[in-house]
Hints:
- By secondary structure, the protein is an alpha/beta fold.
Amino acid sequence: MQTLNMQQESFRIIQFTDLHLMYQDSDYQTYNLIKNCINHMKPDLVVITGDITMTLDNKNVIVFLRDFLDSFKVNWTFVFGNHDHESNYTLEEQADLYMQGKYCLFEKGDPSLRGCGNYYIDLQKDEKTVAMLGFLDSHNSRTYINNQGNQKWTWDYIDFEQINDAVKNINLLKEKKNDFSSLFFFHIPLIDFKTEIEENLSNCVGHCYEDISCSDLDNDFHYQLERTNTLRGVFVGHDHVCDFQFVKDKCLYAFGRCTGHYNYVKPDYVKGARIIDIDALGNVKSNVILEG
């Protein structure tokens, strides 16, 4: 597990999501948005929550983005999304390119777990853990047999083995410190987002202009992580015109604001990013910022 140090009384993360870089003119608009957000908001860490590229031959896109992010001299990392699978290169090969970045903190993670990029960062202040940042691969899609015995397609989800690994890493940190927060970043939203917007709309703040593209299957993520008494944040992407957030059992669930200028859902939807601030006690606050 890597360690990052909180130099001030708070630690700022900026979340970009769904860049969909693909050798189009829209790429330049996306890069300009990222540059302006980083220069203005001065984050301590940049996180991209998947769908970074959307082209088969994405090697040069990855190299350009890597060097572009390094130019800000700010630590950065990411998780893969479903469109990152649409490449001539495996996720591991793509990761090798990204990881050549001087400020890149991405790790491939435990090879026994499904996916590429299940890893953790120990955020400390004065050598004490303030928060554990977890980065998980939510994969792509899968088929399953429903209760009627029919095969169905669905978006994928965080595997039970990944959840167990997250709990294990939390417990390892608990041996050193009793009170800290855990925050998780991945691409495909949990079924909790769909349930909340459909059944508890008054608890949601922000926008939801499309159906939630989560898995049909409930992986029990919230229940297993909430039991650790550390879960304080879950940040996802995938749905381009959703940026709502809600609190459930002291945990802030939030969509990132779509950053990529490749439009195929709601062309007039203003692009942006999400700011996540963690104070020295592990408290989490977040808000969306818009382009322009």
